[in-house]
Amino acid sequence: MSDLASKRKNRKEVAQAQTWDLSDLFPSHEAWEQELKAIQEEVTSITAYKENVTKNAQALLSCLQALENYQERLIRVATYASLRASADGSDANNQRDSAKVATAMAQISAALSFVEAELLTLSEQKIIQYLQEEPKLKLFQKTLLDTLEKKPHTLSPEIEETLAALSQVHDAPYMIYGRSKSADMEFDAIKSTDGKTLPMSAALYEDRYEFEANTHIRRAAYQSFTKTLNSYKHTFAATYATEVSKQVTLAKLRNYPSVTDMLLHSQQVSKEMYEQQLDVILKELAPHMRRYAKLKKEKLELDDMHYCDLKAPLDPAFNPKTTYQEATTTIKEALAVMGTEYSDMIHKGLSERWVDYCDNIGKATGAFCSSPYGVHPYILITWTDTMRGAFVLAHELGHAGHFYLAGKNQSLSNTRPSTYFVEAPSTLNELLLANHLLAKTEDKQMKRWVITQLLGTYYHNFVTHLLEAEFQRRVYQLAEAGTPLTADVLSTQKYDTLQAFWGDSVTLDAGAGLTWMRQPHYYMGLYPYTYSAGLTVSTNVAKQIQQEGQPAVDRWLQVLKAGGTMKPFDLIKKAGVDMSKPAPIQEAVAYVGSLIDQLEESY
Asked: Distance of CA 192 to CAs 5, 197, 206, 213, Å?
């Protein structure tokens, strides 16, 4: 074990160079407090437009410009508090500041709900007329047309204002889940084979023990992990059931045929594209992954392939270690294919403390990229000295590169594309890193290791997240049929989803059924399946880059710079991939199969 894991530090004990620099958001905490106060007072600069938003083209432009400038300030204030809470959720001051922001945002959201309500009174003819009269409104064309699509699902202004005022209550399930996971959950320490006590936390399990080569430690960590999950299952089930109940109720109130229709509406994805993504992968990937599980069982000489063994390294003796500095150099080399503008941004991010990579008590688990408009992206990761971390960092830098380029080329309201597309730029970077490492080595063991890392990426997006999506699909069907979502019901659905996919290639225990408690994604609408959509796109684009070179790179950079100016289907088509057909998904699944073929041949 590296010294990173032997004793977890408090946030204030961590070397500053390993933390992100939030002074790019606010020079001091006092400056942030002043701005939090200012945005609450200055909401009147927007509410002044009440009842006049759509009076004429000029008034509409003036209101939308003022609102966009104001939203940029809101994003900075909220991001600052959110990043501090992610860096140390156990700090009472950070908890207090998060609560302050949540309260302020709920009040502001309610105060500003009139803008959308008034936009919804515009007819399509009126919007076209205003766009002709005021050319500067072109910047807001997509916002205006998207609003039109919401019209059939919008309630009266008074009800919309009431719902907006309750946003803090609506966000409570996610907040409670996150707070409980980062600040309350405690795990039994585990013993190594020689009797040494090893520390255990959710972060250590998800970032280290799950990939542990030593079967005794890996299984002991899983037992400790699922034992704690089991003691929280009723609370977490009530929390998640509240979230689902909220979504089902809102779908009915807003006149959607189902909760799925409502959640896909904001992504601008058809139900056919969503169902196709799940059905094709569940059916066509399962045989490949069962073959992979059997190969692992055989090579690791396991008595039984347990659920907690699925992420064990295939070649335990070979686990390339790497420092953060070495990993960042390799990533920069791998992404050089993307050209100067992209490479310069990556260099800037890595050298100017956009990344928080230390481990400390209270730090959020996993990794994410937050991209406040007009500043620069921030990345959270917990560095554990393994080469696997290089893939996670490359992934988050993919999000950073995307929103950096979109933010440089688009206004705030045109920056963010649908979540259906959002995981494509991140996973493409992982594929480029893998291709680079494979091209750089003749070592059979290293090649095998890189292939297993790639399979790790496909496992994460095509298996973990896709099975979450299938679990979600089942949960929504039950909720809409009026079935109470108890801990037992949720655990049974999770267990059955895993069983249907893995068949007899993996031995499942009751703990596997509890793993629905691991992911925050269930509180983010229909998010899990979008990971597989993104990776489907990136698999096809990576192939294009290998075959065509520069023209494919140029197309891709144009797609990144387009930000949120297009619907996902059109945006992806611009990259040369047609997601209305099953072919790109089948192509990606076949590629996974070819990786498993290569592994089998290497033995």
From this structure: 14, 6, 18, 12
State the Cα–Cα distance between residues 354 and 379, nearest whole angstrom.
6
* 509 token code pair: 């225990």
Residue 42 CB-density burial (10 A; 0-12 exposed, 13-18 middle, 19+ buried): middle
Tell me the angle at which helices 424-440 and 324-334 cross, rounded to the nearest 10 degrees.
100
Quick check: 473 and 259 in contact, CB under 8 A?
no
Count of H helices and E strands in the chain? 27, 5
Q: State the Cα–Cα distance between residues 470 and 492, nearest whole angstrom.
A: 13
pLDDT tens for 183-192 read 889 999 999 9
- Tokens 């899983």 belong to residue: 222
Q: Decide if 598 contacts 451 (C-beta within 8 A).
A: yes
Please tell me whether residue 369 adopts helix, strand or coil conformation.
Answer: strand
Residue 598 confidence (pLDDT) above 50 = yes
Q: How far is Cα 270 from Cα 276, in angstroms, rounded to an integer? A: 10
Structure tokens given for 229:
């999950």
Secondary structure (H, E, C), 526-563: CCHHHHHHHHHHHHHHHHHHHHHCHHHHHHHHHHHHCC
pTM: 0.86
DSSP-derived letter for residue 9 is B
Rounded to 5 degrees, φ, ψ at 89 are -75, -10
CB-based contacts of 306, cutoff 8 Å, min separation 6: 219, 222, 506, 507, 509
Mean local confidence (pLDDT), 427-433: 96
Amino acid at 242: T
The whole-angstrom separation of Cα 285 and Cα 585 is 10
The structure tokens 């998640």 sit at 240
> How much is the mean pLDDT over the chain?
94
The answer to whether the Cα torsion of 535, 537, 540, 542 is positive or negative is: negative
Quote the CA–CA distance of 458 and 431 in Å, as a whole number: 10
392 with 381: CB under 8 angstroms? yes
